[in-house]
Amino acid sequence: MTDEYYMLQALKEAKKAFDDGEIPVGAIILQNEKILARGYNQVERLNDSTAHAEIISLTSAFNYLGSKYLPEATIYITVEPCLMCAGALYWSKISRIVYGADDKKNGYKKYCVCPPVVDGLELAPWPFHPKSAVITGILKDECAHLIKEFFKARR
After folding, report:
1. How far is 4 from 8, CA to CA, in rounded Å?
2. Judging by DSSP bridges, how do beta strands 74-79 and 96-101 pair with one another?
3. Which tens digits make up the pLDDT trace of 37-70?
4. 8 Å CB contact between 14 and 78
5. How many CA atoms lie within 13 A of 147 on its CB side?
6. From the CB of residue 51, how many other CB atoms can be counted at a distance below 10 Å?
7. Nearest-angstrom CA–CA distance, 128 and 141
8. Distance CA 43, CA 94 (A)
9. Burial of residue 25, with CB atoms counted within 10 A of its CB: 0-12 exposed, 13-18 middle, 19 or more buried
10. Per the CB 3.0–4.6 Å rule, which of 10, 108, 109, 144 could disulfide with 76?
11. pLDDT on residue 124
12. 103 vs 14, residue with greater confidence
């Protein structure tokens, strides 16, 4: 399977958030070509500002594996992680972070000095774990469209 295939799975999660009136961000965690966990934003539902798709999927994967680290896993996220989620990903020691659309307003890059992107690949940018690879722009137009439609409907 490809990064695009798995990002489509994360987009399915984002659509659940959209349908629930949540900011439509979705995430899945994959290891050995098996989806371990799925998550989508549930901030409003849970009345919890930390209930982001990444946090929910990380917690689910930790519980599934019985481990606090994910050094062989990949997370697919529809939108660039915020600084809180980037910190959680750092502590998870996840191997790969793949996301679709940039978030210029709330994404981690707004707050971090990161190395340049080369062919869509950032190797070990702060604030992620030094062994984590970050791949950006996978299905970015599809991911961005869902966010734009969400906010367009609320204006």
Report:
1. 6
2. parallel
3. 999 999 999 999 999 999 999 999 999 999 999 9
4. yes
5. 20
6. 18
7. 24
8. 23
9. buried
10. 10
11. 44
12. 14
Cis amide linkage into residue 24, ω under 30° from 0: no
Residues marked active site are found at: 54
**Residue where the block lists tokens 């702060």:** 126
Can you give the pTM of this predicted structure? Answer: 0.90
- State the Cα–Cα distance between residues 126 and 87, nearest whole angstrom: 10
Q: Tokens representing 115?
A: 């190395």
pLDDT for 112: 67
Residues ≥6 apart with Cβ < 8 Å to 40: 13, 14, 16, 17, 20, 22, 24, 25, 26, 27, 53, 56
**Higher pLDDT residue, 84 or 118?**
84
